[in-house]
Amino acid sequence: xxxxxxxxxxxxxxxxxxxxxxxxxxxxxxxxxxxxxxxxxxxxxxxxxxxxxxxxxxxxxxxxxxxxxxxxxxxxxxxxxxxxxxxxxxxxxxxxxxxxxxxxxxxxxxxxxxxxxxxxxxxxxxxxxxxxxxxxxxxxxxxxxxxxxxxxxxxxxxxxxxxxxxxxxxxxxxxxxxxxxxxxxxxxxxxxxxxxxxxxxxxxxxxxxxxxxxxxxxxxxxxxxxxxxxxxxxxxxxxxxxxxxxxxxxxxxxxxxxxxxxxxxxxxxx
Length: 270
What we know:
Radius of gyration: 18 Å
Number of helices: 10
Order of helices and strands: HEHEHEEHEHHHEHHHE
Strand content: 15-25%
Shape: globular
Number of strands: 7
Helix content: 40-55%
Largest sheet: 7 strands, mixed
């Protein structure tokens, strides 16, 4: 992962929430929220919350006396998440680095994180921090994307951009969001951090959009892939988005489109 792979700023938070969230994150957020609520936690910490799709799904399922601390490394993402959330006295918003959490030991029953672990520069540190702030018997619940070939629109866009920029193809999607999918590695890193009872479930969903252009805009302009495209050639973002949209249309049709997305859901116990 490059240093630039973790800075979500400018127009990316809004585009991310507008396009990426309905395209790929909402179905998994509903699943994570269901799993989290089934653990009946009274004190929840969410790390790498992004624009708050899990927060919006989980908060209504928590008891009235629960506490819910929502964090992200990127203040612009957290600000956008807070702006989308209905007023709720149980929720506290806090900018925080998952590798150095500003919380006391054994403060939470549950730490959850949807599609954030891939962005941690040192996952071992992040896992040790999650374990540190969990109470004995607490749960760490998180998800990571499977390899890019199992996530069709992301793969389509990556392959299309490689044709536009053959000498220096933008590889953000393959490198970072889809770069941490080895289940044996995930398990061993969690166990090295002191977790036990690690369970990993692979789950497939359908990514749906009303037109081929929506996935192209989502990936090219609502993720950090945007920065890579703009770094290759100034002013090429719209043309690259159009090309990606045409590639998706060629494969999936020009009307409503749907394709597989797949992730690993991980639960570990202190």
